[in-house]
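ugh ok so i messed up the first submission bc i forgot one of the chains. this is the corrected input, ALL of the components this time, i swear. 791 residues overall. if the numbers dont match what u have on ur side tell me asap before i send this to the collaborators (the ones from the other lab, u know who)
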Amino acid sequence: MPRKGEKSVKQRGDPPSRGAASASHQSASHRDVPRLPHRLAWALMATVFPLIWMGGLVTTYNAGMAVPDWPSTYGYLFMYPLESWLKTWDVFLEHGHRLIGMTAGFLTIALLWSLWVHDRRPWMRKLGIAALLGVSLQGTLGGLRVVGREILLANVHGCVAPLFFAFTVSLTVLTSPRWRREEKSRESEPNAGENARPARRTFHPTFILSLPILVYIQIVLGAQLRHLPSELPPGWSFLWTILHLTVAALLPIVWGACSWYAAGLPSPFAQRRWLQAFGWLLVLQITLGLGTWVVNYNFPQWFQDWVVVIPYTVIDGGWLQALVTTAHTATGSLLLAVATAYAHWALAGAKAAARDHRFITHIRAAGSR
Amino acid sequence: MKQKIPENGSPAGNRRPIPCGDRAAFGGGIIRRSAVVRGEVLAIAVLFLAAGCSSYKSPSFQLNLEGRDPASVKPAQREAVEEMLTDLFGTPDDPRVPPGVDLDLSLLQRAAGPIGRDVTGSERGLFRKHCVVCHGISGDGAGPIAEMLNPYPRDFRNGVFKFTSVAGGAKPLRSDLLRTLERGLPGTGMPSFSPLGPEDLDALAEYVRYLSIRGETELFLLRTVVDENEPLPLRRGFVLEEGVRPIDAMWRLAEEQPQQYVIVPQRPNLAPDKLAAAVRRGKALYQEPRAQCTTCHGPDGRGDGSETELFDDWNKAKMGITDAQTQQLAKWFALPLQALEPRNFHDGLFHGGGRPEDIYLRIYIGIPGTPMPAAGPAPGTPGVFTSDEIWDLTFYVLSLSRRGSSSQEDSASPASVSVNAR
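and heres the new structure output, hopefully the right one now
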């Protein structure tokens, strides 16, 4: 009868040698890993994603200023009358965005508490404090955007949101039982199991980080197109669009290179799975990006001249426009989240591979003497 | 017994530093556990610092110096024109209506100002919410996204609108502007605002009229002050009498004298055989030299006529006689030169609408501001074709379309015209 830790390892499809080699250790560490911080990190991450959707809808419908006061809503802090809330669409969006934001805030406090009580890693507690600071600052930024009527603040608020979402993904990964097991395994048995084989290819951290960094640059460029100041000269949007398209073209190349590198590493550290998810999301995101242009500004003239003429009329504020545009925004954040998760595992994998390589080099050097 | 491996990867007791190449190759000693997280925290901090450097600035109308050397306008002249315009029309946040001008201030206030709702819950800033990204704060058609669109968004400041129901060069009716707002312009960036309520649409249409009347007054002032060197300071009474009132009268013309200027299409209810005959007659009219249709739209209506270099009035102004002149002029316009493409009727895409009534109006009135001429009679002009002939042409044009009418409720769709014509 396999023990609990051993069973879970085999179910994930890892090589049997690994499970057999360290089953006892994993089983023990599995029990040691506190589950509450991870569950709360999950809950926070699962709250921030709809929050991003709601924020995206607020921008799509230009509903950011539907409620003129902050932190209260027409004078109510929490108990804004349900009837008034549901009556007007833009007020529904803005107040709903605020309510989900508050939920994220409370979850962050709970997460910090659980890290303080259950997680012995000091740096993890610091990350909990950083999360609380991040969510507070993001909420304040959203509030100041309302009070100050400043589109630049809306822009920054929109750029911080995916970063905070990525941060919650980091917290979820770093508190996960699997990460903790790998962490303990790396600390105590660096040359155990499949990690003992040296990497066939080099894997520089800058290269690993290029994927989330590039995704984030793309998000910032997209935010510039979403939050165009009314007095911006026309040339700027042209520049933002060209840059946005250029990075969109670069992303599949970087993703392909990352996938090629990942294939050459001895330990997958779950990164191939993340890269596969990233690839599918990228296809969806590029499709949504093209769709976003069409549902906002119609088919470009070159498309009508060279491909096909489609007598389409843009519907401002229509459900298709809102859905496609907001989905493009939210999928951008999701890509960053997946790239972040990939980066964590890839960095850990690269680090372990590098350490194993050095260990074997030293053994060979000792043997030759 | 297992050896403890320290962070730098060397076995315990061996403190020999790892070569730099090794570090670069495998990241050992460089990678830290929270490299991703530190990057996220740093990026958040940078963005907050960026946000700290902002404060709300009320946007202002930009002086219309399109096609002018900015150096040719003296600072005193510029100041005089801007002051007079602000005195008469207010600002984008606080619009005013000059005395006697046919504009509804309450509607303007609903459309003007920053986006949001006031403390009573009434919506404000509709123009900035729905229009400014393309048409710009001043209604100059050079909003932030304008350069990416083809055709460019309309510059309201000349008071010229493409799709109207008025002949003889009269200004559009409120209903014309409302129709464009409700339906949008198929195949272009101009959306349909059908999800908006009638009050919002009224407010937007009124604000478009306001920007046009303001823009035309601005052009009058620039002509008077800069081109004709009118002595400063400007007299308010003079500007009202000589500039604003005549412009307002032009905007009232079609509204007050609809029987003379407004064209109401009365579509003939034809049996299939008569419809086919109408299409045949339309085809013959289309080929006639007096119609001049083939020059741009080509012999078969594919948009491949002999006239290849076509520009609308907004772009024609950007063309000099020589290339050097055109390059010089380009510096004085917000948007680059953009050519027009005559409609290919076989595509079934009509910017002004695909219903028979829409096509009829396009042929009758023409498309103001473009090379598409008016073919129907108007006050003071006999016209090239009669109303019946224009219907024949309409049915022929629609018979070429391979698609149905853009209006689903339309019984006489181009598809049915096409079938009956064969």
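quick check: The longest helix of chain B spans residues 198-227. that seems consistent at least. Chain B touches chain A through 84 residues (CB under 8 Å).
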